[in-house]
Amino acid sequence: MEHETTSKSAPVDQVDAPASESRRGFLQIAALTGAVAAVSGRRAWANGDIGFHAKDLSDDKLVDMYRTILKIRWHERTQADEMLTNPDYRGYNHFYAGQEAVATGVCAALRNDGPFEQIDLAYSSHRPSGHAIAKGVDIPKMCAENDFRATGLNGGYAAEMHLSDPDVGFIGADGMIGPSMPIASGSAFAFRARGSDQVAVVFGGDGTYATPHFHSALNNAKLLDLPLIYVLENNLYHQYAHYSYSCPHRDIADAAAAYGIPSRVVDGQDVLQVYNAAKDAVDRARAGGGPSFIEAKTYRYYNHWGAPGATAGELGAFGYDPLAITSFRPEREVRAWMQRDPVDICRNTLVDWDVLDETRAAEIETEVKAEIEAAFAWASEQPLCTPEDGLKNVFADGAVPARQFG
Amino acid sequence: MEHETTSKSAPVDQVDAPASESRRGFLQIAALTGAVAAVSGRRAWANGDIGFHAKDLSDDKLVDMYRTILKIRWHERTQADEMLTNPDYRGYNHFYAGQEAVATGVCAALRNDGPFEQIDLAYSSHRPSGHAIAKGVDIPKMCAENDFRATGLNGGYAAEMHLSDPDVGFIGADGMIGPSMPIASGSAFAFRARGSDQVAVVFGGDGTYATPHFHSALNNAKLLDLPLIYVLENNLYHQYAHYSYSCPHRDIADAAAAYGIPSRVVDGQDVLQVYNAAKDAVDRARAGGGPSFIEAKTYRYYNHWGAPGATAGELGAFGYDPLAITSFRPEREVRAWMQRDPVDICRNTLVDWDVLDETRAAEIETEVKAEIEAAFAWASEQPLCTPEDGLKNVFADGAVPARQFG
Amino acid sequence: MAQKSWMYSVLEAVQYEMQQDPSMIWIFELTPPVASNPGKPVINLETEFGRKRVTNTGIDENWMASCCLGASLAGSRAATYIPYQGALMPFQVIQNVAGKLRHMTGGRASMPVVWIIEMTGQTPGFAGQHSCYEEDSYYAHVPGVRTVIPSTPYDAKGMMHAALRSPDPVVYLYPAGLRTLTEEVPDEAYEVPLDKAAVRQEGNDLTIVSSGGGMPGVLEAAATLGGEGMSVEVIDLRALKEMDTETLVNSVAKTRHLLTVDQSYYTLGPGAEVIARVAENVEGAKYKRVAFPDAPPPASPEMFTWMRPDAEKIAGAARALV
Amino acid sequence: MAQKSWMYSVLEAVQYEMQQDPSMIWIFELTPPVASNPGKPVINLETEFGRKRVTNTGIDENWMASCCLGASLAGSRAATYIPYQGALMPFQVIQNVAGKLRHMTGGRASMPVVWIIEMTGQTPGFAGQHSCYEEDSYYAHVPGVRTVIPSTPYDAKGMMHAALRSPDPVVYLYPAGLRTLTEEVPDEAYEVPLDKAAVRQEGNDLTIVSSGGGMPGVLEAAATLGGEGMSVEVIDLRALKEMDTETLVNSVAKTRHLLTVDQSYYTLGPGAEVIARVAENVEGAKYKRVAFPDAPPPASPEMFTWMRPDAEKIAGAARALV
Ligand SMILES: Cc1ncc(C[n+]2csc(CCOP(=O)(O)OP(=O)(O)O)c2C)c(N)n1
Ligand SMILES: Cc1ncc(C[n+]2csc(CCOP(=O)(O)OP(=O)(O)O)c2C)c(N)n1
Ligand SMILES: [Mg+2]
Ligand SMILES: [Mg+2]
What we know:
The complex is a heterotetramer, with two copies of chain A and two copies of chain C. By secondary structure, chain A is an alpha/beta fold. Helix content of chain A is 39%, strand content 9%. In chain A, helix 9 (212-223) links the parallel strand 3 (200-205) and strand 4 (228-234). Chain C is an alpha/beta fold. One thiamine diphosphate sits between chains A (126-127, 175-178, 205-208, 235, 237-239, 304) and D (30, 59, 83, 85-86, 89).
């Protein structure tokens, strides 16, 4: 089913990227004009209206953002390779590669350390490893968690789908599509009630638009002026269904704008555009100006879950995923998006701004790769869990009785 | 808390009635200008753009609508008097008086008899007695049901909050705020799937806007082009909370329009305006044009539930309702709305159109009163239920075991 | 110390905790959190603490419950009152998120949240969701959430203090049929534990176990049976999750006869769990359940009152069992 | 007749009923209703019946379930497949609307609707809602809805035909851990009743009662125990609501020993109801429950597999009981 867009307002901050066209529409344009191949990372930021806040940042902060994108990227690639080549490796992931600039740009605008009562909180809901790294979790411990180790971030109880770390304000993933949005709005309610200037950010996919929770969270955030930032990562698909099956809007941001919430569409491949939108939203929320909605147009390089279709040593997955059953996304769409890679766009910008040169940029990537490899190595040596510990942490104190033996 | 309206689009079909102003805003205007007292029933329909479809109706059909409004009104008044004066009377009601033109105008545009596979379905969800009468249920049986009689419309199982009668396509009330909207969309889905031109109508209060179901029902109705008509009766309050506590829009229709659904605001006190909007919506739905949303600005003359504050023989309730606790609506607001009474507006229009004269109009009212009195009399003589029947109708066949005796 | 109603006792506890903790919040639906009691000051949380901390929005019980969960995750204690019509609207977020979050974060999520979930007064004449009394079982099956159901104003206040001070999420069931009960309730704060049953009356011939709205009928039946010479031990569960097995087993080990009474439906009502726990631990006892049949409540008072367990039916079942 | 998998058997029944009844609809979430089986034609409901009758929309399980309910009220048979992550999203509408509607309309509402609700495969390594197995109890407490849980492809097909032909709303639980089971399943339509337990094996020393995903472990344990000389009667509940009391009581009256096995949580798992029903009717029997502890499933395979009941643990509990 093809849907006509019903929205009248023009997307904001739209760049000449393969954006939110319906799949067929996009492919037709790409085929007719060869436009995709002509889009380079360099051109993306050569747009007069980007870099407003970002241009004021210190070099260190900018390099940090580049480093964060690389950490997420290399965590993904290293883990995918582990999954594809190491039969003893048990971890899995909902890969975030391709979307790194979203988590990085948003979290760079947040307060990520300090006492729990002062830091900003991020709800990941789903596909959390990128959000976790951007918010600042300890990567070796996260790797241990993903590999079910007793010394992992969450003691081996969570694994990838439920990562969390309150120490850095990462409330984490709950694995459900929908519920985190109203919950995050509750944290925002608490901030406002106690007179704190903290903000709550919730990340959600295009799949969250259709959930009933979308309405609840946005309506109440608006009514109560809550410091909530809803970051919708529109990677065009939920599992293997294009978002036009679930949403009558071309830009989901239009749906949020209907509540009277300041809503923007950004190029999710460009970390600085994301940062700028997040910074505006955070400033508004801290000043008591209420909620914001950011729709980041982005794309994931791997399939929905795990590494089907991927090849060790290569970025992305192009094969057919049996999970998709009768519906799948075309390889040329994946390849088109990969030409506007968030790593390249960030690096190119920093080089153009003279924050880094190519040599230093490459060195940093080498350093990050090594750091991630060390994290996986450390994780693989961590102890496995003690079976009986499964009875703990049900309530704050004590353990529940075993019942499996009668 | 006062909310500024965020909507930019002008309300459609707005008349010079006390409409959806926030309570305080409305009272200020009323106090300053004395405008309310100047609004008469006669003036309401003297608006060039009403009566389009309605003007083409046969006299009989128009008189039927007048009669239906009167049936609802006298059912309300008779029942309120019973509750206030007859200590043996056990029935109760969520009174609909003041809103009669909404149910009447909508149902007049529907197909209300014929085989079940051909008639239009109406979901009442809540406050059902007006919807039931307008859809054509047998009034004596409904009175018996409301009085818990074995021969009532639903055998005494339902009472007022759960009235239903599939024979006239009245799927009825389920007593919940929210769930009926997605359910009604499911009936619409079935119509479309089986190639039928039936339509599904769901009535809901302003309270339904904030429910998560609002989003689900409208989004899916739009995506799937369902023949669903959502009639939102905005009587300004849910229980005793003004709708501005739950909705950032001045016109809730704006929220529906954001989905790309044709949405109108109508004067809910004028049955012909309601009919015209419903007729458009029904025609569109039957032709495969998908859903519509109608917001009827209206008002209830009694309190939320039962007859607190009402006086036998008088229309409306003005006293303080203990249920309201710290919040209640001002008496002058009730009296202002009562000056644009749906009975008067309908009668005046029909007299002006020469469909009736005042004498005949008064005769009809006398006939209807007698009919309603007879219905209550019949109902009061009906047998009470057999206790053991409570174990039946759990499943289609048989009865469940008694468990209350051990 | 004064005679206080259930809801006044509860709001007294909430008011005290909100005065102590300026970050605590309360969300309500339409009906403001106000209680009055003869001879006592009116409690109005909305006006006392202001609408930044105490607010209503629309009819969206799932948002109310989720909001409080999110507040608790942000370090603010939070409570809400869900009316009975919406009792199961927030079920999924309590069952699938709140109940699992502490465990699935390896103990890192703390959730000092209390959901007061109203159960109906089982009013004859209503029907469907307006007279049902079934949420006890649904919530009691959820791990990671403490589910309690006080049956007296004294317990209501003490368990509310305990619930608000607990780092665990608590489903606090309020059987609205008890709204007219009054008893002497201290003015100062005190705690009643969230995991202990109460032996309301000791006896040797028969153990009757019930909870919440079932208790008045059970106590009345026990008095009748006592007058007939039967020695009845009456246990009020109070805590549905974690259920106090020890008190149940000790009692039936003595009386050898167990009668459970649920206002909730028969199948998988709390009584099923009570019997199963005892049957696993006591040999040769005799068992019977009194419960609402597995049928929704009908509107007709004739049907409904016949179906609902009451003192007379309970006493009849006890006589048949012993 | 051919060896068929669970899901192929189910879709075969659905396909047949949809061919017979051109008004029947099916709603899915993201994953199209497609099944293949060696030597058999691929079944694809979406392409065979078209997107007007078979469609997906967004991630909104409550809408999916509500849509089917509304279709059934409009006189069209309807079914949907709710993935396990969303298993309790439609709970409120099933519990508070569908379950009550026939009764509260005095029998006037007819609801030929089937909600296939997936339960997880309890996959070690997942956690939280991705490995839980708890929806059986929640749905089984709801009156007015038939809750069934087939454990074999044969029953799956026969109970799907019966469910689709029933005017009652049916919650049809699918334990996804059984997805790899195959057995001989007839090609033609047939019905398996929605209210009868199955005696899978007769015996005299011990009755083991389980359902759904618990059955393979129980059958394996029974084989082991049989090899040791214990005569075990194995009952597969199949119907959770209405539960087949007679089969349970007759069996334990004979064996005097009852062991229940739940993959679901201990407290108020189906086993509690089984024991309570038997204990009310059989005197002097001995009882034991094997169940998942009252804890959410942790991710670590070491913790999870230790906590989950399996053949060895079941056999151990049986030896201790008899
Ligand atoms: C309530 C619920 N239903 C279904 C699922 C299964 N599920 C997991 S991820 C996913 C798709 C989510 O799509 P989107 O929101 O776009 O996020 P993306 O995977 O693209 O990052 C689904 C349906 C779930 N986790 N929760
Ligand atoms: C889910 C749910 N929550 C709460 C209630 C209790 N309740 C009954 S009517 C009502 C107010 C409804 O207001 P509105 O939708 O404006 O309809 P009106 O009463 O004005 O006709 C509420 C909250 C309910 N029936 N269902
Ligand atoms: Mg997506
Ligand atoms: Mg209203």
